[in-house]
From TrEMBL:
Every Radical SAM core domain range: 93-348
CDD domains the record matches: Radical_SAM
Gene Ontology BP, a term: porphyrin-containing compound biosynthetic process
GO cellular component: cytoplasm
Organism taxonomic ancestry: Eukaryota, Rhodophyta, Bangiophyceae, Porphyridiales, Porphyridiaceae
Gene3D superfamilies for the chain: tm_1862 like domain
Record SMART domains: Elp3 (SM00729)
Protein name: Radical S-adenosyl methionine domain-containing protein 1, mitochondrial
C-alpha cells in the first residue's frame, strides 16, 4: 500500500479493500512498512492473511521507523515508567523473557494458489506410508538445522542474561507449512529438546496446525500423546469446487474424516480456518461454510479474507473486487455475517479474525496481540526477544546458511531494537484487534506520557458515529462497523500520536 497512512474511502466495502492490503486477517489495520509484522501469526493455512493468530512469528516486521522516517527515541531502557499495560504481568519497557514459542515447519504437499508463506512443496505421500527417500532426507536435514538453531539461541540467551534457568513455556505453536506432514519421530525430537532446554508449564497450551488428508486417527492419537492440546485445522471452505479453485490438496470428505479422527482421538479442543473472498465464492457459499461449522461445533474458528499477494498465482490472475472475486460489498457482507452468525451459535468474536467459545480463546496468539515477547524458530519465522525482532530467511538453503552463521556467533546475531514510540504504536495497533480493546489509562501509566488525552481526542468522531466506544478508559471497536473501518480508525490514532511528539530524543 503506497501513499499516506490515512484517507481511505469511508464506506465499509471499500474500507475492506484497504484491509486486504495488509495480511492481518479480514480486517487488519495497515501502515506503510508495518503490514508484514502482523500478517498471520498463525494465515489460512495459507492465505497470506492468515491468523491474527500466529503471524507475528511468520513474518519479518519491517525496521519499524515512523511514517515520517524519524526515530523518536533510542533504547527500550530510556524510561522509568513501570506500570502494566493491557493487564500484562510483564514490563513492556524492558526486554522480556519469553514464555511463548513458535516453530515453523515449512513442508506442504503443494503450494496453494493464494499462499505466499515461507513453505517448500514435497509432493503427495500417503499417511503412515514409507516416505520417498528425497523427502525423508529433506525432513531430516531441516529438523537437524532447526534443533541446532534452538540450542544455540537458548545457550546465547542464557549467557547474555546470566541466567541458568529461563521461564518455562506457557504456549507453543507448531505452524507451517503443514506440521502434520512431518513424521512423528521428528516432532518427538523437537518436543524433547524444548522440554530439556526450557521446560513446559503444567497447563501449557500446545497448538499444532493440521491439514485434512495428512493424518488419521492413529496419528491424531500420537499428536495428543506428544502433548499437543489444541489442533488448528485448515479447512478453508466446505465447497469442493472452491477447494479445487484454490489448489488445495484436500476435499470436503477429507475435512469430515479429519474431524472424525480428532473426535476418535478425544481431541476436543480444535479450531477451524475458513477463507472468504475466494474466486467464484457467493454469499450462499459462505453461509453454507458457516452452517457446516455450526454442525461440527468446534470451540474456535478463524476467518480470513483473501489477500492477493503479488507472488501468488491468485495475485497474478486477479484484482481485488473484480470478477471472479466477490465484489467489495459482498466481501464486507461475508465478514459481517461471520460475526453475526458465529456469535449467534455461541462462538464469540474476540479478535479481528477470531471467534471462540468462552474459555477457548487462543492463549498463544494473545501473546502477539499484547505485544509481548516470544521465541520464533525455523525458516521464515520472526522472534521478539530482548526488545529485538530477528527474522529468518525464507528459503531452505538460505536458512541453513543463516543457522550455521548464527551458531558461529554463539547465538548473538543482532537486529534493531524497537523504541518507545514504536512500542506504544504496536501495542495500540495490536490491542485494538481485540474486541476487549485497549485500556488507555494503563497505556499512559506504562509509557509515562499523556496518551489518553491524545487518543480520546483523535477517536472522537468514531465515538460519535458508533464505530468505536469508550468504557471508562478502555477504547474498543464496535462490531461490525468498527472492525470494517479499523484502517481508518488506527490511521487517525497513530497520526495523532505522531503529531503529539510525545517522546523526545
Amino acid at each position: 500500500m503506497a501513499g499516506r497512512a490515512y484517507g481511505w474511502a469511508r464506506d465499509s466495502a471499500r474500507s475492506l479493500v484497504a484491509m486486504r492490503a495488509l495480511r492481518m486477517g479480514p480486517t487488519p489495520c495497515s501502515f506503510v512498512g508495518r503490514a508484514s509484522m502482523y500478517v498471520h501469526v498463525g494465515a489460512p493455512r495459507a492465505p497470506p492473511a492468515r491468523r491474527g493468530e500466529v503471524c507475528a512469528a511468520r513474518r519479518r516486521p519491517s525496521a519499524f521507523s515512523s511514517r515520517s522516517g524519524r526515530r523518536w527515541c533510542g533504547s527500550l531502557r530510556e524510561t522509568q515508567s513501570r506500570a502494566s499495560v493491557l493487564n500484562m504481568k510483564t514490563d513492556l519497557l524492558r526486554p522480556q523473557l519469553p514464555s511463548a514459542l513458535y516453530i515453523h515447519l515449512p513442508f506442504c504437499k503443494k503450494r496453494c494458489y493464494y499462499c505466499d508463506f515461507a513453505i517448500t512443496a514435497v509432493g503427495e505421500h500417503s499417511v503412515n506410508q514409507p516416505l520417498p527417500a528425497p523427502v525423508e532426507q529433506r525432513y531430516a536435514e531441516y529438523v537437524t538445522q532447526l534443533l541446532k538453531e534452538i540450542q544455540q539461541s537458548i545457550a546465547g540467551l542464557r549467557s547474555r542474561m546470566q541466567a541458568h534457568e529461563l521461564p518455562k513455556l506457557k504456549t507453543l505453536y507448531l505452524g507451517g507449512g503443514t506440521p502434520s506432514l512431518l513424521p512423528i519421530r521428528y516432532l518427538e525430537d523437537i518436543m524433547a529438546l524444548l522440554r530439556a532446554e526450557l521446560g513446559f508449564e503444567p497447563d501449557i497450551e500446545i497448538t499444532m496446525e493440521m491439514d485434512p488428508g495428512t493424518f488419521d486417527v492413529a496419528l491424531a492419537r500420537s499428536f495428543k500423546q506428544l502433548g499437543v492440546t489444541r489442533a488448528s485445522v485448515g479447512c478453508q471452505s466446505f465447497s469442493d469446487r472452491l477447494l479445487s479453485i484454490c489448489g488445495r490438496a484436500h476435499n470436503t470428505d477429507d475435512i469430515y474424516r479429519a474431524i472424525d479422527a480428532l473426535h476418535s482421538a478425544q481431541f476436543d479442543v480444535y479450531s477451524l480456518d475458513l477463507i472468504s473472498g475466494l474466486p467464484g465464492q457467493s454469499l450462499e457459499d459462505w453461509h453454507e461454510s458457516l452452517r457446516c461449522v455450526e454442525r461440527i461445533a468446534p470451540v474456535h474458528v478463524s476467518t480470513y479474507d483473501l489477500e492477493l499477494a503479488s507472488s501468488t498465482k491468485f495475485g497474478r490472475l486477479y484484482k481485488p473486487g473484480e470478477s471472479p472475486l466477490p465484489s467489495d460489498e459482498d466481501a464486507a457482507l461475508m465478514y459481517k455475517e461471520s460475526i453475526s452468525f458465529l456469535n449467534s451459535i455461541g462462538i464469540l468474536h474476540y479478535e479481528t479474525s477470531n471467534f471462540a467459545r468462552p474459555g477457548f480463546e487462543s492463549r498463544h496468539n494473545q501473546v502477539y496481540w499484547r505485544n509481548e515477547a516470544y521465541y520464533g524458530f525455523g525458516m521464515g519465522s520472526t522472534s521478539y526477544v530482548e526488545g529485538k525482532r530477528v527474522t529468518r530467511p525464507r528459503t531452505l538453503r538460505a536458512y541453513y546458511d543463516w543457522v550455521d552463521q548464527y551458531a558461529l556467533l554463539n547465538g548473538t546475531l543482532d537486529d534493531s531494537a524497537t523504541d518507545l514510540a514504536e512500542q506504544l504504536e504496536d501495542t495500540l495497533m495490536l490491542g485494538l484487534r481485540r474486541v476487549s480493546g485497549v485500556d488507555l489509562a494503563a497505556l499512559e501509566g506504562t509509557f509515562g506520557v499523556p496518551v489518553q488525552q491524545v487518543l480520546c481526542a483523535a477517536s472522537e468522531r468514531f465515538l460519535v458515529d458508533g464505530r468505536a466506544q469508550l468504557s471508562g478508559s478502555v477504547l474498543s471497536l464496535r462490531d461490525p462497523e468498527g472492525f470494517l473501518f479499523q484502517n481508518d480508525i488506527l490511521s487517525d490514532l497513530l497520526l495523532a500520536l505522531e503529531r503529539a511528539a510525545l517522546f523526545k530524543r
